[in-house]
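Structure ticket #2291
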Amino acid sequence: MRLFAIAFLLLACSDPPVPEAEASSRPGTPTVETPDDEAAEAPRDDVPSDAPPPRQAACADPLPLYADGARTGDVCESELGARGLTTIDLSDAWVPNLFVDDPALGEAGHQPYADIYRALADERFDDVPDEYESEPNLELFGIQPTFRVLLARLDDETRHACHDAIDDAPLAALTFTLHPWAAADRETTLSRQRTVAYLRTRLGREAEARGLADLDALEGDPTWGAHLTRMRRLEAPLRAVEAVQAHLVCDGRLTESAARQNAGVFDWRSASALAAWQREHAIVGGGSLDAETRGFVAEDSRELVFRQLLRTLRERVVDATGRLEDGSASHTWGTVLGRMLDVDAIHFDAGRPPLPNGAPDLVAPATEAAARALGLTDPSHARTTLRALRDAGVDRVAVRLPPAPAYDSASMPLRAEIDRGDVWYERRGGRVEQRPVFTLYVDTPEGEVALVRWPTTIGGWKPERAPSGAIGVRYKESYVGPRVWRDVVASPAWLPPSSTPDDELVRRRNGRWVANRGLFGPGYRSAYGLAMLVLHKVYEPRGEETEPTFVDQGIRVHGSVSYRSITSGTSHGCHRLYNHLAVRLAGFMLAHRPHVRHGSIAVRYGRTAHAHGQAIPIRIESRGYRYELTPPVPIEVLEGRVRGRLREAQTGFRALPAREAAEAVAEAAADE
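Resolution: structure written out below.
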């Protein structure tokens, strides 16, 4: 990412306040929403959990009821709460509740990104306008594939047979992480291949002359053992890359000719293809061939699709139940059907021990219960079940899930906390043992329960270009003290300031230059990701004032695809979360706090970008879809452990020599 793009993200965490007047001036009257408690109730004592459901439901549009992989009857939606049942939406048109329209608000009730979300999830890329980011396999970035897409992947026997035919032993033999090689490494790799071929020939002749069964028999030989060890050392990364390239060919990410011409060469083509493959399987790898990725590559391809299916089902279950507790606060991440669905980076503990009041994982058991009820228990059964559901036209089902915890309600007493962890104000700080974490608490009669604790980010030294053109750094602070969440915004957009260079506002798509919504949004790659919660500082009323004053200081908790920054803990001041977790958090707030739906935040942003010899119009009509929490949720940003000599954030711009400036830009680009 270029320096200007980095500077824009810096500005993104200092966005102008979300305008209340714009939201309230749209057509329609804001609607007050309080989640329905009935759907979250546990089964009544007078209704046995094993009572057979009626074969016919006395309502116009009953839901099919599923248990143990079979349809056991029908049920009316009005009966769901009393019977402890939950509706799961299996349709290809599903979006999280955060993105659902409200026709009662008129034009303001239309969600600006919902249709794009649906098209991307269903891989209908022709339905995505050119100016929006559009690429396949977006699960890592917060958009799960639909069940239609997953069924097609399970059905692709040609692809599965291709994977089955690959020898994965070289992947197990590699014992270190392989990073993408630079272009200059190509000749080194080819030289290494020639050396391996020479050593293999010499060793083969010696083994044959001695009548040995194979080359391994030369191991430990005082003369030839060292040559065998050298050959294995040089050969290991080459053979591992060849195995990965073969799998990427099966998935259509590399052509056979490219894999053949660059066999064993981990160049940008292979690394880019691997990064896309990692994105498909929700692996935080960035194109590097680490141990976790090698294990996934060697896994049966049908099993990998099945895990994708379980993760898609999990987000539907989370949205339907309003559950958030994923075991992160207590370090008790659960499995679903014996499978750990998330990689280690998603379960990153930020160097923190488990909390004694941390909630157990409630998401995994609910997901497993839904999978068992529907018969989605392994790749083979999942393929049969999905086909049967689609053939029958079933896209909404009722299932029995574990009951909600006792503290669950439509208006939960919540508070949030951001612990900044180890803070170094020196530009070259020391060791960071505890990285920033976000924790959400609920107050219960038995005491506080920590619902989740996720890694997040705080500010730090970031590169910036001064008006003079000099490149330097500036410390971007994350303000400490009490704040509140009042505004929850779905599909937020960022308004580029006039200082944004025109060429950064456009991108090339399908052979032409278009507006770059990947930068300003809405979209999964945009500055604020798919969802954000705005931090307001509250000033209590004074004098004749009757209402408190909410001040937006430009800091948000928001989604991001900059996953490396989340594990490293730094941003431009905002508190980043993985996109899917930001969506879960925002949805949880709407399910468990009274709120007012204001709808799309109207804005008239117009600009013409003159770039590449063309004039490209830039139009932004919505800054996102706003919900107002009533009352707001308190959030405290803790100072953390300030380390080093400097005890407070440094102000002002610091110009850097050319070499240091280039290093700062490269470091920031890697984090972004």
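Closing remark: Residues 179 and 450 are 38 Å apart (CA to CA).
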